[in-house]
């Protein structure tokens, strides 16, 4: 049995994780905590799953790494500075492994993989991400990651810069520029988590769309992370791709 703790246990995602851990045959819940609770409650866990808040997750990870507890992280908002700090912490305290996945949905990971494959074949690529209005960060971690993957695939293939004649712009109208890829974030009541990647070249377009209908859709990916994190080759792994054999 893998002993699992959950940070953010009463949150929208954390409560699904608690149910998934309790429902699986090979995992056992040690404790689930929220902002006001003591982290000591998860001592004894092999793995802690964190779905908290971008402002809280680094402090949680510092503590877990110091305790030698593996972490499976869904919380978004990681930038280069935070990742560099994490690598430093993991070097200073060998033992714990950290898996950060901007998206635990297997279909979402496949969407990113397919986007990477398609990117070099199109002149233009833009991303539209659509989420519920309670989301704290914009654009989503998945959209940022997709933009980076598309940009890298275009660079590797020597694809020229995207055409864009915009010279007059209401600020924000063309979305955020992530590595040269425009990303547009919609916050709409009634939605959960959705994304479209629109590719275009002369006379044809291709749209790849992913829809997450409920938060339970993320749980097979979370449980995969819980099962695999201890055996990952590197102290820090970003994305579910290596666990799905996608490289
Ligand atoms: P949420 O409903 O607001 O839940 C967050 C929970 O974290 C709350 O229960 C909150 O407790 C708790 N919390 C805050 N600070 C904490 C701390 N220091 N220690 C322990 N618990 C703490 O948010 P959500 O919708 O579940 O989303 C959580 C995160 O997951 C966000 O960053 C979101 O973008 C991300 N997310 C990722 C994926 C993915 O596949 N990677 C999918 C969906 C969402 P209190 O209520 O007591 O403050």
Walkthrough of the structure:
The chain has a six-stranded parallel sheet, with helices on both faces. A five-stranded mixed sheet has the order 7-8-6-9-10, with helices on one face. It is built from six helices and eleven strands. It has two domains: 2-100 and 216-244, NAD(P)-binding Rossmann-like Domain (Rossmann fold); 106-213, Dihydrodipicolinate Reductase, domain 2. With 247 residues, the chain is an alpha/beta fold. The protein has helices at 12-23, 57-67, 80-92, 106-118, 141-157, 219-228, and strands spanning 2-7, 27-33, 47-50, 70-73, 98-100, 124-131, 176-178, 181-187, 193-201, 204-212, 236-238. Helix 2 runs parallel beside helix 3. It starts with a strand and ends in a 9-residue tail after the last strand. The mean pLDDT is 96. The relative contact order is 0.17. Strand 7 and strand 8 (181-187) form a beta hairpin. The radius of gyration is 19 Å and the shape is elongated. The longest helix is centred in the middle third of the chain and has 17 residues, at 141-157. The site of NADP nicotinamide-adenine-dinucleotide phosphate has 26 residues, from helix 1.
Write a brief caption for the model.
The chain is an alpha/beta fold and 247 residues long. It is built from 6 helices and 11 strands. The strands form 2 sheets. It has a 6-stranded parallel beta sheet with strand order 2-1-3-4-5-11, with helices on both faces. The protein has a 5-stranded mixed beta sheet with strand order 7-8-6-9-10, covered by helices on one side.
């Amino acid at each position: 049995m893998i002993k699992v703790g959950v940070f953010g246990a009463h949150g929208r995602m954390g409560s699904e994780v608690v149910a998934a851990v309790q429902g699986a045959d090979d995992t056992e819940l040690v404790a689930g905590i929220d902002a006001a609770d003591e982290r000591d409650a998860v001592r004894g866990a092999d793995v802690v799953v964190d779905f908290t808040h971008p402002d809280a997750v680094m402090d949680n990870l510092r503590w877990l790494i110091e305790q030698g507890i593996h972490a499976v992280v869904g919380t978004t908002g990681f930038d280069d500075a935070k990742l560099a700090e994490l690598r430093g912490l993991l070097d200073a305290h060998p033992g714990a492994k950290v898996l950060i996945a901007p998206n635990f949905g297997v279909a979402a990971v496949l969407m990113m993989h397919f986007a990477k494959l398609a990117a070099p074949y199109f002149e233009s690529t833009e991303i539209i991400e659509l989420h519920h209005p309670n989301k704290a960060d914009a654009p989503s971690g998945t959209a940022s990651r997709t933009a980076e993957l598309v940009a890298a695939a275009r660079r590797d293939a020597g694809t020229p810069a995207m055409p864009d004649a915009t010279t007059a712009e209401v600020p924000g109208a063309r979305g955020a520029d992530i590595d040269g890829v425009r990303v547009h974030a919609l916050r709409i009541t009634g939605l959960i988590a959705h994304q479209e990647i629109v590719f275009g070249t002369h006379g044809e377009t291709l749209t790849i769309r992913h829809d997450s209908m409920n938060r339970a859709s993320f749980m097979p990916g979370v449980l995969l992370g819980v099962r695999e994190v201890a055996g990952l080759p590197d102290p820090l792994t970003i994305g579910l791709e290596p666990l799905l054999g996608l490289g």
